[in-house]
Write a structure and sequence with these properties.
With 207 residues, this protein is α/β, with parallel strands linked by helices. It has one domain: Rossmann fold (3-Layer(aba) Sandwich), CATH 3.40.50.300. It has nine helices and eight strands. The N and C termini lie close together (11 Å). The structure holds BIS(adenosine)-5'-pentaphosphate.
Length: 207
């Protein structure tokens, strides 16, 4: 099963992707995670990406498309994958379709998780992540409930950057919902419900 996860920043894509990976054994391809790893490692790619990410802007298509093409060549993606945070522009969506056609693979569903922007601002400004295992939690967690690791706040989860990320989403990424509706792949899910309920709805839609 090959899935595209769409949704605004903070809609719960990473949270639902972790559940889907655990349930179906899919490869998790998160362009945000790949870029943050490059920033942390201080690679030339990371240095370039950081200047865009810190402002809540999109990293240029050419950079991100190259990363995803390379990742899709890896063995673990052959038995199924979840793309989390990609595509984010129509150029990326077209490049993905053409790369998958070359590889003889298809998207089975594009799951769009919908959440009101005001809920998102609250979620993101209170989000905390585990330094050790990447667990996604919130400021109400004293330490990682999974491995006791230290929690931190992402640089782009400050209120002003979050608002810019939401604007960028509306302008560049939201139109992809119509793109996937047009290909009959779209599954729309109300993401403003408890995590387990959102997950059950996604599972039912994928069944
Ligand atoms: P990326 O890392 O992809 O961030 P994003 O899309 O902005 O999404 P987030 O990770 O912030 O949120 P999420 O939807 O995964 O929500 P989560 O599950 O964590 O991208 C970061 C940056 O990298 C971009 O701004 C851009 O610069 C660059 N980039 C990445 N991909 C790119 C691309 N393709 N092209 C160009 N540039 C790219 O949940 C959020 C919070 O809500 C958590 O605290 C969680 O616990 C909580 N939560 C989740 N679900 C629920 C629920 N149902 N109820 C209550 N709380 C919930």
């Amino acid at each position: 099963m090959n899935i595209v996860l769409l949704g605004a920043p903070g809609a719960g894509k990473g949270t639902q992707a972790a559940r889907l990976v655990a349930e179906y054994g899919l490869a998790h391809i998160s362009t945000g995670d790949i870029l943050r790893a490059a920033v942390k490692a201080g690679t030339p790619l990371g240095l370039e990406a950081k200047s865009f990410m810190d402002k809540g802007e999109l990293v240029p298509d050419s950079v991100v498309i190259g990363l995803v093409k390379e990742r899709l060549q890896q063995e673990d993606t052959k038995s199924g994958f979840i793309l989390d945070g990609f595509p984010r522009t129509s150029t990326q969506a077209v490049a993905l379709a053409s790369e998958l056609a070359e590889l003889g693979r298809d998207i089975d569903a594009a799951v769009a998780v919908q959440v009101d922007p005001e809920v998102i601002v609250k979620r993101l400004t209170s989000r905390r992540l585990c330094k050790e295992c990447g667990y996604i939690g919130s400021e109400s967690d004293a330490a990682c409930p999974s491995c006791e690791g230290e929690l931190y706040q992402r640089d782009d989860d400050k209120p002003e950057t979050v608002r810019n990320r939401l604007e960028v989403y509306e302008q560049s990424t939201a139109p992809l919902i119509e793109y996937y509706r047009g290909s009959d792949l779209l599954v729309e899910v109300d993401g403003d419900r408890p995590v387990d309920e959102v997950f059950s709805t996604i599972q039912e839609a994928l069944a």
